[in-house]
Amino acid sequence: MEITFLGTSSGVPTRSRNVSSIALRLPQRAEVWLFDCGEGTQHQIQRSNIKVSQIRRIFITHMHGDHIFGLMGLLASCGLAGNPEQIDIYGPAGLGDYLQACSRYSYTHFSYPIKVHKHRAGVIYEDDEYVVKCQKLEHRVTAYGYRVEEKDRPGHFDAEKARSLGIPFGPLYGELKRGKTITLPDGRKISGKELVGPDQVGRKIAYCTDTIFCEGSIELAKDADVVIHEATFAHQDAKMAYERLHSTSTMAAQVALAAKAKTLIMTHFSPRYAPGNELNIKDLLQEARAIFANTEIAEDFLTYPVPPRAANTKSN
């Protein structure tokens, strides 16, 4: 699992930061999942290591323009590129109508299937490897955050040891990999637990924007390996944060601390903290680290590989 930040500014783009979008790359299945798609996202993708042809799912948090204005253009480009795969899009009420109107008035016809799924709290997607959940946040419009959970995988199967025990290669290996006990022709009973290492514990990622500090963010971020949380304002500008229902750097850190997360990456910064101003992004980082030490700042095109978890470190 690898996270690439395609846009880290709030509201409007700046010279160094585009508006909201991140890509979650799943190399083992050659898929990319996008979270939000602000204006210019497809240009950012062209400048990154992300392949448009691998985009399979797009998750939209809410209907503000800095999170959706790039969506129609990206989908149109996917069609022109001959994307043969279906793209599933998850978002709040109105997203389907918005895309239909854009398609109708721009005379855009997609050459591949698109399916829009309306938000609901809880599990919104699940397959053999991943579960995606969403939870309502607190913003000026209906907004949701997301949590991606990688399912636990069986540990490494020691094929060399199996051969040394005289176990013939074939279907028996599959049963042992699943932890079953087999009986060999000579009467020996062999348990798969003797040949399979500890489970590889699945990783967890939370994406929380736009929102003020709320219980929904904490629930999404619980025990997460990485929490991506908006930090639009500095702590001294908390009054504006409350008025506009956005988070400060200290609110983002408090979410990560309360959730017992491992790493916090802050994003969605107001342009008021650009270099040269009274306060800048480094000040927000210092504020957050005073509460949650393992905090990082997102920059456009930052790529963050999510490290594997140590075996047997499941949360309670």
Task: Kindly describe this structure.
The chain is an alpha/beta fold and 316 residues long. Helix content is 25%, strand content 25%. It is built from ten helices and 16 strands. The strands form three sheets. The chain has a seven-stranded mixed beta sheet. Strand 3, helix 1 and strand 4 form a beta-alpha-beta unit. The longest helix has 12 residues. It is globular, with a radius of gyration of 22 Å. The two termini are 23 Å apart.
Are there runs of 5+ residues with pLDDT below 50, and where? Answer: none
* Mean pLDDT across every amino acid position: 92
Over all CA atoms, what is the radius of gyration?
A: 22 Å
How many E strands?
16
Order of helices and strands: EEEHEHHEHEEEEHHEEEHEHHEHEE
Work out the strand percent: 15-25%
Strands of the widest sheet, in order across it, are 6-5-4-3-2-1-16
Share of helical residues = 25-40%
What structural class should be given to the helix and strand makeup? alpha/beta
Largest sheet: 7 strands, mixed
Shape: globular
Total helix count? 10
Q: Distance between the terminal alpha carbons, to the nearest Å?
A: 23 Å
